[in-house]
Amino acid sequence: MRIITHIARFLVAVTFIFSGFVKLVDPLGSAYKFEEYFGADVLNLEFLSPFALQFSIVLILAEIMLGVMLLVGYKPKITVWSLFFISLLFLFLTWYSAHYDKVTDCGCFGDAIKLTPWETFYKNVILIVLVVYLLIRVYDIHPILSDVFARRVSMISFIVFVGIAFYVLRYLPIIDFRPYAIGKNIPEGMRIPEDAEVPVYEDTWIYKVDGENKVYTTEDKPWNIQGATFVDRKTRTLKEGYIPPIHDFTMEREGEDLTETLMEKEKLMLIVAYNLKMASQEGMQQIKELSERAMEMGYTVYCFSASTQEDYDIIKKEYNLDFDLLFCDETTLKTIVRSNPGIVTLNKGTITGKWSWRRADSIILDH
């Protein structure tokens, strides 16, 4: 039985460490996911949205530290009971999002591994079964080498993890799992293969017949029913088709889509600021100096934002910026770079560099 306990202990610990680490390198991604959960369409707890980042950091640190503590055997009873309660929370959230089809990706493995809501739920069912088994056999869990060793490893790990979190929040994720990582080509990421699986939909039609609303399928052809009046149509996705890694990416200028044209540029710099009103003022000042240097070296420079032209005109005048605005969806911009503002350089659609505004004065541009 001890062998089974150790196997379960190892599996749970590694799962929590891996899950925590892939989110630790990009805590803002988890914060955006919390904002989605807190939104009116899911849990309707919008008053918690301003604290999404704090929730994200606390949960990530708890997750990865509990994994480390279980692995080294530090305070096993407290650790296993904590794992049980956090697993119970995950189980509820993933069941809720899967059952009510609220969140398409729970973000339990960050951007490293994508799971469907039901896949995530079943993963958590297995996980909580293992944790319950560990609760029953907790007396078989002992510290590796000694209590002192387990305590020191746990403390050192905590300090390292906090340091990583501070660094990536100040700059950028140390590992980029997103489709906009350096070296990725945006046009290729948007391409749909010819043999790609197509989505399958089911339409249901509501028609008023003899004063009563009735539901029909497309095969019923309710529009041919004598005296029937159309009320509504509902579409349900039966099977998801192929979704390219990069979607919802556009580069619009005054209603004109410039994506194809700009993806041919050899020297393109995008100043990405998903929300100009929330952008760092110090960052915008550094961006001014960087953009001037870039344009002298032949770069085409644009501000890439979800904000309005009116908002940009205020920023442009305040910082005397010499480049225009491109519009894109806010969620896409948050995915491209975790900094507001951030800097992205491209060569014919391939991302060649990404920086936080804090690195603006040290960026070396290609001639």
Description of the molecule:
With 367 residues, the chain is α+β, with helices and mostly antiparallel strands. It folds into 3 domains: 2-170, no CATH class; 200-239, no CATH class; 252-362, Glutaredoxin, CATH 3.40.30.10. It has 11 helices and 10 strands. It has helices at 2-24, 27-38, 52-72, 76-99, 117-136, 147-170, 186-190, 259-262, 281-296, 309-319, 330-336; strands at 200-209, 212-217, 229-239, 252-253, 256-257, 268-273, 300-305, 324-327, 342-347, 350-356. The strands form 3 sheets. Strands 8-7-6-9-10 form a 5-stranded mixed sheet, sandwiched between helices. It has a 3-stranded antiparallel sheet with strand order 2-1-3, with no helix packed on it. A two-stranded antiparallel sheet has the order 4-5. Strand 6 (268-273), helix 9 and strand 7 (300-305) form a beta-alpha-beta unit. Helix 3 (52-72) packs across helix 4. 32% of the residues are buried. The model has no long low-confidence stretch (mean pLDDT 88).
